[in-house]
């Protein structure tokens, strides 16, 4: 067996090994050591390219790949190798080696997944010159092809400042919406099945599954859509308010408390819960500075008819009697 074929088998073994629940720091250190062997990195990238090809084209495994796994410095391992019909690790590795050998150079580049943890933000500088600012607790994947630049917002929020490239449109998929741009600046939010697109500069076109005609948005306009539902709503907004999170401010104009608490729960590990029949529908307008959880809750209860009760595993907000008057 040639050294390159051996590397492919070893790469497939690592792909399987690192997905096991019991993987630990020892495994990652051994994997890093293996990557230092000449040719190992290229083999592993080739195996991941097959992984992505299956993700894009393999209907039989698409359901198992619906939820992206969280990655930070390393790329995610998307594939469940049980699709090979229960073959052992060695047989799976051989199958991958056979599949890659003739066509490896023709396979598409894999998506790169980016995530932020609760309370974390992140800025991406893409190879095409575009910039992506990711909000807290967000997950998106990026692939730059020759004919298009493709991003999927799996969950969360991001501000895109897209470099102009007429030959390669910038396509963003978020739920059942597709955003198409050439060069512009806009915000995409996907949380709890609620989708929104806000334009700060330039023009974007938004298409929804099942709709024939895309909707064109201008600066200062926001499109909102419930995932899976028919129709969208478009309204004029103060676009800078929608990206206040970049400077540590959450700006609300007549929003329900349920939406605000949902936002806060993406910043902190300890959940905030609502108690009371009408508590979630209370309306709020104002600005919340993003700092400590207790400080934010205290600020919110000072501005609304609410009481906060810490428990062992959460903070419970209840409407005061005056809230229903």
UniProtKB/TrEMBL annotation:
The chain crosses the membrane at residues 83-104. Residues 114-205 form the FecR protein domain. The keyword Transferase does not apply. It comes from Caulobacter segnis. GO terms for molecular function: sigma factor antagonist activity. It comes from the Bacteria. This is Iron dicitrate transport regulator FecR. Pfam families: DUF4880, FecR. Signal peptide: none annotated. Keywords: Membrane, Transmembrane, Transmembrane helix. Residues 9-49 form the FecR N-terminal domain.
